[in-house]
């Protein structure tokens, strides 16, 4: 039955308008981020500008309307997420109009995009349409199944360790335990490494939708410096191993199914530490990185024999030309790695989110959506 009070109807309508504009903006940011290539920037900015304006216009009427009793918390939380989303859209537009010099501004905008998702995640119960942000499409009509009653003896959802959720602190980590996890039932772990100047609390959202939909644990560490210790792999490498140990001692992680992946510098580092002696990772999936020379000096290539590696690179990559990826492919094949090489023709130096599903099903067929 519809509530007859006009103020309640007006509040719901304005909340819905903000939610819809936020969802539209965040979806457009994800699409734009996938096609983040310097020549494309002006056109992408042009497409995003009206969405930023629409989101700003949707927020103001909601701010002006006093919320019903007890509804101020949900309204304020939605507005915080909308503000982040608007900031991300405007940052992308500002960066896009500056050409290649605007790329750092766009990277900041994509970080705001992640922070908007972080703000909105708790609202998936109160505002179910927002739940579609955090689930793959086959789950959209049964979102409630992704949030069953919490399992006894197991803490699920988002967690932060060692101040990992603080963007002003480096060297920590965040992790996610799927709400559908069951105590005592081993599940896979994906360790995802951000690119240079990134942060684990932001990069986690690159994988959370799949972790939630396919039921695996997700660990997103933060490098101790602005990027990973590429010249001294043990510095960050030991920290990563200790984080994995922390999780395996406290949660039902299957030690036979631990995937290490990463973007850009995170991809380069994933090969460096993933092929190191006594590394706990059972498969590697670097995206848009390179094969660092220390892999030769440290004997890593001798340990690549038989190792499952899923290597992704863009033909349009302007930071690490695709010729470097082809050299890495040839070296890893020569070393005997169980290699899958994916060269994507329209991919620049950015994240190919569509590869997540392919990587997961290659890594562990039980992580297919059909099996979930």
Report on the structure:
It is a single chain. This protein is an alpha/beta fold. The protein has two domains: 6-129, no CATH class; 141-367, Rossmann fold (3-Layer(aba) Sandwich). The protein is 43% helix and 14% strand. It has eleven helices and eight strands. The protein has helices at residues 6-34, 41-64, 72-96, 103-120, 200-203, 208-214, 233-250, 265-274, 294-297, 322-334, 355-363, and strands at residues 157-161, 173-177, 187-193, 217-221, 253-263, 283-287, 308-314, 338-344. An eight-stranded mixed sheet has the order 1-2-4-3-5-6-7-8, sandwiched between helices. Helix 1 (6-34) packs antiparallel against helix 2 (41-64) and helix 3 runs antiparallel to helix 4 (103-120). The protein is globular. The model has no long low-confidence stretch (mean pLDDT 95).
CATH architecture of the largest domain: 3-Layer(aba) Sandwich
Going across the major beta sheet, what is the strand order? 1-2-4-3-5-6-7-8
Q: Regions with pLDDT < 50 over 5+ consecutive residues?
A: none
Largest sheet: 8 strands, mixed
Portion in helices: 40-55%
The CATH superfamily of the largest domain turns out to be Alpha/Beta hydrolase fold, catalytic domain
CATH class term of the largest domain: Alpha Beta
Strand percent estimate: 5-15%
Alpha-carbon distance between the two ends = 35 Å
Figure out the total of helices.
11
Q: What integer is the average pLDDT?
A: 95
Query: Would you give the CATH topology of the largest domain?
Result: Rossmann fold
Q: Helix-strand pattern, N to C?
A: HHHHEEEHHEHEHEHEHEH
């Amino acid at each position: 039955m519809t509530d007859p009070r006009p103020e309640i109807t007006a509040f719901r309508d304005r909340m819905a308008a903000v939610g819809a504009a936020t969802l539209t903006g965040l979806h457009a940011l994800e699409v734009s981020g996938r096609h983040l290539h310097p020549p494309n920037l002006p056109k992408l900015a042009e497409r995003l500008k009206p969405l930023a304006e629409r989101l700003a216009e949707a927020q103001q009427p909601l701010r002006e309307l006093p919320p019903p009793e007890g509804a101020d918390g949900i309204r304020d939380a939605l507005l915080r997420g909308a503000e982040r989303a608007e900031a991300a859209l405007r940052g992308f537009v500002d960066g896009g109009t500056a050409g290649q010099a605007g790329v750092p501004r766009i990277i900041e905008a994509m970080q705001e995009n992640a922070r908007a998702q972080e703000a909105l995640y708790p609202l998936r119960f109160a505002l179910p349409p927002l739940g579609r942000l955090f689930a793959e499409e086959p789950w959209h009509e049964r979102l409630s199944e992704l949030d069953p009653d919490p399992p006894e003896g197991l803490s699920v959802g988002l967690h932060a360790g060692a101040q990992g959720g603080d963007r002003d602190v480096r060297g920590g980590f965040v992790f996610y335990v799927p709400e559908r996890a069951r105590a005592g039932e081993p599940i896979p772990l994906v360790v995802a490494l951000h690119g240079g100047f990134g942060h684990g609390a932001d990069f986690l959202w690159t994988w959370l939708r799949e972790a939630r939909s396919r039921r695996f644990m997700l660990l997103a560490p933060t490098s101790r410096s602005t990027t990973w210790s590429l010249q001294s792999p043990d510095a960050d490498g030991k920290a990563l191993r200790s984080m994995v140990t922390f999780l395996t001692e406290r949660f039902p992680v299957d030690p036979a199914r631990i995937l290490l992946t990463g973007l850009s510098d995170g991809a380069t580092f994933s090969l460096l530490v993933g092929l190191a002696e006594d590394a706990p990772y059972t498969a590697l999936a670097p995206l848009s990185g390179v094969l660092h020379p220390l892999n030769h000096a440290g004997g890593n290539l001798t340990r690549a024999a038989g190792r499952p590696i899923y290597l992704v690179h863009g033909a349009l990559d302007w930071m690490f030309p695709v010729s470097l990826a082809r050299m890495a492919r040839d070296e890893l094949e020569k070393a005997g790695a169980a290699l899958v090489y994916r060269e994507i023709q329209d991919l620049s130096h950015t994240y190919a989110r569509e590869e997540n599903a392919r990587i997961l099903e290659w890594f562990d067929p039980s992580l297919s959506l059909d099996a979930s």
